[in-house]
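Troubleshooting: if your tokenizer reports a length mismatch, compare your output against this known-good record of 129 residues.
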Amino acid sequence: MAGETTGAVRWILRLEGICVLAAAIFFYPAPDFSWGCFALYFLAPDLSLLGYAFGSRVGAVAYNAAHSYAGAIVCLVAGFLFALPVFSCAGVIWCAHIGFDRALGYGLKYPGDFNMTHLGRIGFQSDPR
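Known-good structure output:
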């Protein structure tokens, strides 16, 4: 599929996800955030999958909005700039989740196929032979 990342670039993007996850885990306890909170909200961005109940286009938009670093970084920065720990906490957890997904190869979704992401196809691939 056009737009699919392959080869070394794909592995670099997955390594980047591991780095973001590691950085988020490293910095998370600095402001005395609770690890229980981290565990509770770590999978919250995956609630965006509910968008697929309204079709693949809506689902892809909802998923991509919840799995883009843009929103997570805005949340994180706003929390630190305005001294709102709940936003800082949410931003770090959100970044950790996205990094985790990218490390596993779950990228941003294309609207036509749930299993096709910018990091390639996800899921089991049967041999076409």
